Amino acid sequence: MKGIIDFHCHLDDESFEADRHDIIAQCEAQGFKRLVVVADPFNERSVDTTLMLMDRYPIVSGMCAAHPHAAKDYCHEVEARIEGMIAHKKCIGLGEAGLDYHYSFSDPEVQKRVFARQIELAASHLLPLIIHSRQAEEDVLTLLEEKKFNRPVIFHCYTGSLDHARRIINRGGFLSFSGIITFPKASELRAVLTETPLDRLFIETDAPYLAPVPKRGERNTPIYLPFTVQKAAEFKGVSEEALIEQVQRNFKTVFQTAF
Prior knowledge:
Layout: E1 5-9, H1 20-29, E2 34-39, H2 44-56, E3 60-64, H3 76-86, E4 91-100, H4 108-124, E5 129-134, H5 137-146, E6 153-155, H6 162-170, E7 174-177, H7 187-195, E8 201-203, H8 225-236, H9 240-255
Parallel strand pairs: 1-2, 2-3, 3-4, 4-5, 5-6, 6-7, 7-8
């Protein structure tokens, strides 16, 4: 499948230490258009690795923001890493930032404060905002409204309700779908996918997490993205090629960047 964009992957992860360059080479050979690697500003190694990949590979872009899990550890040093990362010409967005009430590794009120600051950073740098939201869509939408955020918003690895999906789309947002749509018990999420307009969706791996069927249980990699593309095209009633081309158009629209 030529032309694929993996909108969200963590090739900085230590699980790729032995083969991340081989994986990117395979993606290049298969005609991938873009790999968007997400840097963790709480981890200096992650940021350095992501910067190296952006500098080395034309198909790699990056993003960076404070993940809600680590909100309790947010500080000036972390924000400085974010600022340094988003200054890079191939850093296309601020993410993943948001709220996570499923795990609540950080206190919800602390998460809200840190997320509010991420919204401010995205606004001041004129960047799209890539959202991590688990069981927190209502508060995420509320904060976006309170901050009057008017840049593009993409909910990565969307797992929320159909009602919240409609509200996100109605306010001009985008949804990104992962390998979860291939899971047998994900019928509700597939219903969300079916209703999401083609011009409002992205496809991602979230590698090394959430490997799609038939690779479920394995370490996920961008190489497995075609399984998710195939399932998404099936439920959207379009060809895989048409879906890939539309995601490319969406990418150009949101990030104002050419391939």
